[in-house]
Amino acid sequence: MNKEAIIVGESYECRKTDFARPIIGEVVRKENNGCIVNVERFYGLDADKIDQVNGQVLIKYSEIAGINYKKCFFN
């Protein structure tokens, strides 16, 4: 995705190249080379790659697959 399409405060599915599985995370802030994401869901093998103090990781814009629609309500 491109930088302009990313919304701070929204959750996205991210496919980080050095992670075993995609992660779900909320965008905290955008930077020039990527965005800082609060990790909400991840695969156990990737736990050591996430900042242990605040649960954040830097994601490149090209690694963001799309918005996570888990908050949608369908009738």
Automatic annotation (TrEMBL):
Protein name: Uncharacterized protein
